[in-house]
Amino acid sequence: GAGVSQTPSNKVTEKGKYVELRCDPISGHTALYWYRQSLGQGPEFLIYFQGTGAADDSGLPNDRFFAVRPEGSVSTLKIQRTERGDSAVYLCASSPQSSYNEQFFGPGTRLTVL
Amino acid sequence: QKEVEQNSGPLSVPEGAIASLNCTYSDRVSQSFFWYRQYSGKSPELIMSIYSNGDKEDGRFTAQLNKASQYVSLLIRDSQPSDSATYLCAVNKGYSTLTFGKGTMLLVSP
After folding, report:
1. What confidence score (pLDDT) does residue A102 get?
2. Is 70 exceeded by the pLDDT of residue A99?
3. Chain A residues contacting B via beta carbons under 8 Å
4. Beta carbons of A108 and B43 less than 8 angstroms apart
5. What 3-state DSSP class applies to B37?
6. Are A90 and A111 in contact (CB under 8 A)?
7. What's the DSSP call for residue B40?
8. Which residue in A26, B15, B63, B65 has the fewest CB atoms around it within 10 Å?
9. Which pLDDT value is given to residue A98?
10. Are A77 and A23 in contact (CB under 8 A)?
């Protein structure tokens, strides 16, 4: 079946602009995660959804970052007033509720803030 | 001390050899452990999961877990050039989020 999809694959924006990154999880997966990966580092947790609600948003770096999952499927990560330090690959993963937290990643969105 | 530590490498092995990748974690409440493979410019791909002490084998891959020593390893037998990638160790503490190490780069030379 189809894997996790993310759009856009690349996003270049200017400092101070607003961006939205979209994630479409594997069909039937109830859990959805956002991670951020900088060069040479492992993915860093941002936020976790179980269904429509954010079960854990402790990884969001500040209040410029926000994410929603209104219908329990597609999720959007929103970044306001982007800064150069926000440049990274943003990864989305999903997991079936029945699994022992095996997470499957999408291809990622590479965000570049100029 | 970082929560999940891995040697960044690169670890270089000749084709056909066994590659041994190691990971230590700091939090004893960690419950499940994962190995992801990440090719350059691609996203992480889950290759192994392990939840209890001992060994778990899947094809050429064997994951080993020792909770007393807080140590996880991945063995790749008969290494192939296509195994060249960064291997990420990830740990789950019973919540749902994963904590990743920085990864170990593996280079398999023909």
Report:
1. 87
2. no
3. 31, 33, 40-45, 48, 50, 55-56, 59, 89, 91, 95, 100-108
4. yes
5. strand
6. yes
7. T
8. B15
9. 59
10. yes
User: For residue range A69-92, what is the model confidence (pLDDT) as tens digits?
Assistant: 999 899 999 999 999 999 999 999
Q: Whole-angstrom Cα distance, residue A110 to residue A90?
A: 6
| Euclidean distance between CA atoms B63 and B65, whole angstroms | 7
pLDDT for B1 beyond 70? no
CB neighbours of A104 closer than 8 A, spacing ≥ 6?
A3, A4, A26, A29, A93, A94, A95, B46
* Average pLDDT for A1-21: 95
pLDDT tens readout for residues A20-75: 999 999 998 989 999 999 999 999 999 999 889 888 899 999 999 999 999 989 99
Nearest Cα neighbor of A70 from A18, A111, A27, A32 is: A32
Which residue, among B65, B86, B73, has the nearest Cα to B11 in the 3D structure? Answer: B86
Q: Are B92 and B4 in contact (CB under 8 A)?
A: no
From B97's Cα to the closest Cα of chain A, the distance in A is: 7
Which residue from A minimizes the CA distance to B91?
A101
Q: What does the pLDDT read at residue B61? A: 98
Residue B45, number of CB atoms within 10 A of its CB? 14
- Answer whether A42 sits within 8 Å of B46, measured CB to CB: no
